[in-house]
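ok, trying the design again with the full structure, not the truncated one.
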């Protein structure tokens, strides 16, 4: 019923798109195939969307390639104002009229995210605001792609550096942030003058299509932004094989990221990878208990544990262990699980049955090796893909649950004695995306930050992703950075020009 109501509202606002977007035209799969998109909270079908493959991907690449010659030649100011319009349209904020299409539609987009991804509506709307911030930020940065003039070693020569867009970008995104993972790529790509073919997850294509609809409405020209979804391996293959595609930007699992990196080698494309994490969250004896509690709850249970920067392991020092676990258990027991549309719910469903089974396997493995359930530990009585917010004590770092990305509302807790031991455990993984620590000792916070092999470190803070901060990982968590001034470089080529005979 609720699915029907939300779908009806979205249809009337024109944001429920179910076809792919190629060259500014909404297109069915060429063979008419469709895939169903489900509401993970109740299993209801939300919509059927075009199930595309190689042929549609090739046409989307051609359309992006053709659009590049025009889009890349626009002035930075022109691109900036179109991006800004995408982001804005008539909302009153800070007593100024701003124009932001994504923000204007934040309620509808939020509902769409909750419907197909499951996160609580408040969190979904926060994702819209977060995701939109990348369009706004890169609309500004579009005007700041500066080159350089270099001091020449020879008197009759002049040397300078131009920065130019790389060309057509293939952007492959996951289901856990169906909006923000797109805008974090498309914002800087378009700002630099690149054009894109987006491949959203088949689990959450509706948000991507709605965002593309708003891009069209805001005057982003046909072909600059294309969307194809369906047969992921074949769409991926087309993007990798085409010499017209000059860059692959991917957010998703490390396993798929490695395949894409290998596939991109054939045509030597630029590659950016935002992959899986295994974040340690270290609570030292000298932490402020309240601050540590708030921070670790936020970093663990956001999106029911389904983010790449969620704490995957809680490392708690022995002196604060009992006090912390008591307080943490009380807080976790009070988390409200349910359909993301219900008031007060903070924990939605997991994305699908396979995700629940993975969590169950990891929990069973830990118990079989001596870990103890402190809170939760099984499927929630709401059924479907709901899982109880869980704490598991007596975990050791060699257990599967501490080595793999859990991607669910389960907190394994590891006890440690010394700072050196905490650092050793924290770094004992192939991942290196986010890490957190809670301590009131300023020297320790600096020392441990330097020792952690991670791209993002939160000190007394569990939640801080932002458009101004570089996001990305060390080791097998990825390559390159998204967001911030550094995010722009991923979409630019550097051209060195030498003018001779200038003496
Ligand atoms: P995934 O299975 O790797 O899928 C990610 C995307 O890749 C989806 O669009 C998927 O399409 C597509 N894909 C799958 N196989 C492919 C292939 N052979 N060729 C081309 N594309 C292919 O990851 P996920 O389960 O959606 O997302 C969860 C993972 O993403 C976690 O590991 C998480 O840590 C990571 N993540 C990382 C960040 C970060 O910034 N570092 C942010 C968010 C998530 P289909 O879904 O249609 O199959």
């Amino acid at each position: 019923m609720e699915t029907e109501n939300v779908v009806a509202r979205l249809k009337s606002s024109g944001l429920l798109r179910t076809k792919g977007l190629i060259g500014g035209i909404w297109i069915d799969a060429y063979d008419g195939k469709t895939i169903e998109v489900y509401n993970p909270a109740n299993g209801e079908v939300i919509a059927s969307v075009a199930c595309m493959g190689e042929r549609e991907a090739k046409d989307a690449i051609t359309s992006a390639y053709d659009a590049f010659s025009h889009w890349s030649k626009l002035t930075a100011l022109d691109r900036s104002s179109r991006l800004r319009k995408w982001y804005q349209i008539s909302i009153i904020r800070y007593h100024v009229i701003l124009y932001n299409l994504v923000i204007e539609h934040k309620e509808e987009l939020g509902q769409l995210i909750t419907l197909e991804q499951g996160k609580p509506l408040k969190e979904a709307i926060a994702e819209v605001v977060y995701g939109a911030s990348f369009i706004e930020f890169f609309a500004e940065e579009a005007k700041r792609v500066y080159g350089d003039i270099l001091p020449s070693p020879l008197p009759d020569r002049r040397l300078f550096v131009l920065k130019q867009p790389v060309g057509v970008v293939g952007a492959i995104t996951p289901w856990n942030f169906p909006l923000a993972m797109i805008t974090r790529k498309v914002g800087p790509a378009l700002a630099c003058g690149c054009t894109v073919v987006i491949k959203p997850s088949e689990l959450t294509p509706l948000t991507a299509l709605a965002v593309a609809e708003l891009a069209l409405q805001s005057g982003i020209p046909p072909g600059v932004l294309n969307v194809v979804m369906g047969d992921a391996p074949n769409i991926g293959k087309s993007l990798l094989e085409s010499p017209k595609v000059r860059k692959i930007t991917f957010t998703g699992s490390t396993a798929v990221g490695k395949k894409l990196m290998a596939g991109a080698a054939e045509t030597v494309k630029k590659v950016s990878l935002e992959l899986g994490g295994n974040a340690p969250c270290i609570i030292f004896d000298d932490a402020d208990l309240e601050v540590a509690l708030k921070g670790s709850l936020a970093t663990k249970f956001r999106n029911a544990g389904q983010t790449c920067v969620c704490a995957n392991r809680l490392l708690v020092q022995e002196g604060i262990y009992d006090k912390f676990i008591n307080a943490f258990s009380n807080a976790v027991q009070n988390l409200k699980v349910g359909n993301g549309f219900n008031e007060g719910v903070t924990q939605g469903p997991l994305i699908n049955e396979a995700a629940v089974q993975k969590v169950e396997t990891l929990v069973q493995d830990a118990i079989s090796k001596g870990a103890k359930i402190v809170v939760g530990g099984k499927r929630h009585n709401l059924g479907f893909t709901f899982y109880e917010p869980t704490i598991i004590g007596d975990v050791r770092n060699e257990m599967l649950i501490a080595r793999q990305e859990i991607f669910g509302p389960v907190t394994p807790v590891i006890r440690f004695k010394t700072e050196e031991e905490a650092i050793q455990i924290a770094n004992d993984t192939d991942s290196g995306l986010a890490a957190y620590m809670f301590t009131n000792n300023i020297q320790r916070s600096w020392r441990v930050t330097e020792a952690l092999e991670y791209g993002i470190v939160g000190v007394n803070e569990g939640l801080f992703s932002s458009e101004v901060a570089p996001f990305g990982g060390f080791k097998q968590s990825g390559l390159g950075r998204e967001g911030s001034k550094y995010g722009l470089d991923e979409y630019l080529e550097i051209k060195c020009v030498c003018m001779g005979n200038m003496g």
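Keeping the full-length input from now on. Residues 279-430+434-466 form a domain with the Aldehyde Dehydrogenase; Chain A, domain 2 fold (CATH 3.40.309.10).
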